[in-house]
Amino acid sequence: MSEYYQFLRPIKKVAIIGGGPSGVPAARQLRDAGLDVTVFERQSEVGGVWNWRGTTAGPLAVPTPPPSSGAFTPTWGSDGETDDADRRKRNLFNPPNPCYWNLTNNVPTKTLAFKDFPYPPETLDCVPHWELAGYVHKYWEAFNLQSVTQLNTRVENAFKREDGLWELRLRKLEELTKDRVRETSRTETFDAVIVATGHYNAPLIPEIPGAAEWFKQWPEAILHSQGYRRPETYAGKTVLIVGAGTSGMNIARDLSDHADKILISARISSSAPAGYQAFRQAQRSRGTDKTVDLEEIREFRPPVPGRQVHDGEIEFADGRVVKGIDHIIFCTGYQYSYPFLSQYHRDPGAAATGQGLEPLVTCGDQVLNLYRDVFYIPDPTLTFIGISVNTSSFSFFEYQSISIARVFTDKARLPTQAQQRKALADVVAKKGKGKFRHFMGQDGEREYVRDTVEWINKDAEWSGAPKIEGHSAEWLHESDQIAVKIAAKYGVMPDGLADLGGNLTEAERAKQVEIVKNETNIEGPVECGVHLNGNSIAVAA
């Protein structure tokens, strides 16, 4: 019996679903490895979540739909020209990204570089969204990936046929005029599929007593952070932000020069990794003179017919009741959702479907049955990029792309399914179930990349493939400065910056302070509540 996994057929033709910072480098790596690759991107250009559009859309429902339909509802076969004056068809086909006007990255830009495509030397540590989208687009053009990319094309369904091929049902939506569109459906077959849709496309609004009734009566007052665009919209208003993570606190700061008052309701999970909890606490400490911290919401009290949202009452966990709110923005994160892989979903309480296939997603907080967050263990012709969180995403995605290219071209071997399951069980035992199984952080990211390089290079010795390099000295240096550069981004001095054990030497702390002084031109000591314990921060809206 082989000690490695054996594919049933050679892999030659591969579909990549998504043309963002994960799908684009995957296309380059697989094509250069000799595979026939096609990227399907539903937007009109590559760039993923960093592509900004001024249009916005409210939640489909409150609470949001279950993961199997959380991102979109697949349709297929309704071809022809139709009117779309209100853009509803286009917005349902390609919902607005979670990208607001003042969004920037929140890890040093140079850690987001692909290995042989550096940013210009003068690039700042934090750049606006259009520069990051432009970087992905320039990479796409520089490596001539236009010919393998199909824009304005969405994968409605992907399933494995009895003959071992993946069949993709595809839908193309073309804008003919401002008011008219044309839809075209077709199918294509592939030997393997890479899902590179990221995890910021299916908003999550949890079930909170009374929230559905509020949304029914005042739908224009309720938004998910995915639909937030510009702070000027909220001038003079009282805004309740539900969630104090990256999006919640960044949007609160974005609103601070315009909104009259910003209320922040959140809780910090006690089951989260220590570094994650510390970062969340640090985020919440970065309030302004307009922010008010509140406990978790207990209920939205029943709305009175004919009244305005300003008259509605919300009760919090400590018994406090608040009214006078004009807008509610749920910054409550996203679900893992793959509606085009419906047979791999098991929504809570739903009957088993999918012909006995082992599920990928149940409640949406994690992706199941993956080896190294990439390979679907029962059938590794189905792979994923971008599942892991809290990484310097672009560069991390590139290493995952390389590993897929090597495996699909038989230049690197996967362990047996039993060994893959054992490796996954070890991860779950270490990190726990739920969303934190995908949590990397700075130390986890580096360990993952080291393991990837060691695996690829060990197999290169027998396959004859070229060896790859790990993180460069420059990348590691930039990554080492993540904590202090976050402090710099928010204009504070890190005199209070330390790991959770307080193990920084005076010389190390002095070096951090000097870095932030150079970055911010701040003079004198100012306390900063950033405590990261060596964990990097996810690049996310």
Automatic annotation (TrEMBL):
One of its GO terms (molecular function) is flavin adenine dinucleotide binding. Gene3D superfamilies: FAD/NAD(P)-binding domain. The keyword NADP applies. InterPro entries: FAD/NAD-bd_sf (IPR036188), Flavin_mOase (IPR000960), Flavin_mOase-like (IPR020946), FMO-like (IPR050346). Residues 57-86 are annotated as: Disordered. Keywords: FAD, Flavoprotein, NADP, Oxidoreductase. Belongs to the FMO family. This is Dimethylaniline monooxygenase.
